[in-house]
User: What shape does this take?
Amino acid sequence: MAAASLSGSSLCNYNYRFSRSIPRRRYFASESRFFSEGLNDVDKPSPKPLIVSSSESNTQNHSILKGSNLSNGPTWKRNLNLQTNCAVGVCISPENVAESHYSHAAEEKLGVLLLNLGGPETLNDVQPFLYNLFADPDIIRLPRLLRFLQQPLAKLISVLRAPKSKEGYASIGGGSPLRKITDEQADALRMALEAKNVHANVYVGMRYWFPFTEEAIEQIKRDRITKLVVLPLYPQFSISTTGSSIRVLQRIFKEDAYLSRLPVSVILSWYQRQGYIQSMADLIEKELGKFAKPEEVMIFFSAHGVPVSYVEDAGDPYKDQMEDCIYLIMQELKARGIGNDHTLAYQSRVGPVQWLKPYTDEVLVEIGQKGVKSLLAVPISFVSEHIETLEEIDMEYKHLALESGIENWGRVPALGCNSLFITDLADAVVEALPSAKAMSTSTEDAEETEYDPLSYVIKLFFGSILAFILLLTPRVVLAFRNGLF
Assistant: This one.
């Protein structure tokens, strides 16, 4: 479990380089980042370390994780020096945490904010939803000189993609079930916390559709919450998911006097938690049992992709975390006597840029040609059913697999409200509460205050010329013609 205090300029400036010296076995992580110095010293490294505590406390492996500038926005400038230190890290059992920290729970008003992507609930919502998605600078990362094109480009892409996206949503009932499922997960989490004698209000904030994160934060203010845990429903961290959501929170909290004093703990990733790993292994084991010859089934992990530049240039830890996650799940299955072959591929790529490989559609064809007859698809980066599972995997990829020679197809459902999974999330929340710290009250980043109108006009002029040239390049024209956007 990775938890961090929320600070005005720090959490979206990761550029992580995850060291492979962390032992490849099941471990729990506890991150503590207390950025009390605010935004005035944004170029200084954080004085507090990220602490990773292995479940095997006698390990001597250490690694230094360093980072700088993940987000396009000028606010995220801090360089984080993050050190794993197994000798210092502490893994506390949920029961002990509850006893030691919450005997005074009646005096506090605890809140848990679940963050998710969101999705269009009707076909009329599809185009504005896509606009919100592509207007996010963490989704389309434009050079600083071209940032003024973010919204016009988002408008163009959303209009071009809307017809095809509407077809997809129409095929799964006319809208995304993500909000309904996330609401159910919120209710289940609240009840799981109640069972641990932790009384908390659980809120849902979506990044690109209703209820937006801003709406959830307003309700948190109205309820006068005194301590908040932020739990993104993405097991693995990525710039484009957790990073983008946290960036929004930082902006909102920085500008509000009440929120800037609110103790907050952020769980940045939780793919390595034992409850999550066991829940995924349970689902896989159950689905394997439905095949006539379970031992011959290939386990096919399909994760949502990200552009390669996020990993290679911005240091997004998503690829490393995904590979570690697969390793931990397969180790759990092996402990149960399940030694099936497995592979990992990435789906849902868009645009003309290179995304993480191998691609799901290409791998399906290859393994079919190699004679694999039975395949179990596992949507590894999703905890709720939505368009990527219900339409892309269940329809497009299943059809492609059967065409490629695979005869027996199965698919592991998303975790949803799986009881072990929800209980583990409740444990993560309880463990994160003690690290909650108030964020800085600083209001402006130094770079943002040094605004030069003449420089802005010059950048706008030359940026417009460059954008015009880029839009006329054959590669971009071909991309639009082929509907890649």
